[in-house]
Specification:
single chain; alpha+beta; 2 helices; 20% strand; PBCV-specific basic adaptor protein
Length: 105
Amino acid sequence: MKTLWKSMLCALMMSVSFEGIAQSGKDTLKVNPDPAIKKTAKKVGNKTSEIAAKGAAKVVDKTYKDKVGPQGQTIYIDNESRYYYINTKGKKVYVSKSRLKPSGK
């Protein structure tokens, strides 16, 4: 029983000392990315979000084949019979049926 208490006490002391070491270090690396990198990363994130949202919409909602959006976007119909399209940032933009245009297909 004594060895169990000794080993638990030793483990406790080591964990406390490691926490102190981990918290004492200062972050010396300061990254200030180039504005072009920020712009490209934002574009990649938006495109990824758009593709993911369109994929989810194709699986979950119905596609309206006879009509397109104001700029020719694919129109989806959700479970509450609302019409929407996915914008370039991956967000749903709800539109009224009167704003839809006939499909050119």
